Amino acid sequence: MKRVIFDTDVGIDDAMALLFLHYAPAVELLAIVTGFGNASVENTTRNTLYIKETFGIRAPVYRGAAGPITRGLERGFPDFVHGANGLGDIAFDDPAVHAETTSGAQGIVDLAYQFPQQLSIVAVGRLTNLALALELCPELPGLIREVVVMGGAFGYNGHSGNVTAHAEANIAGDPVAANRVFGSELQLTIVGLDVTEETIATPRFFEHLRQHAAHAGEFIHRISRCYLDFHQRINGSYECPVHDSSAVAYLLRPDIFVTRQGRVRVATEGANQGQTMFNEAGAGEVANCKICTAVDADALLRLYTATICSGGNQA
Question: Whole-model pTM?
Answer without folding.
Answer: 0.97
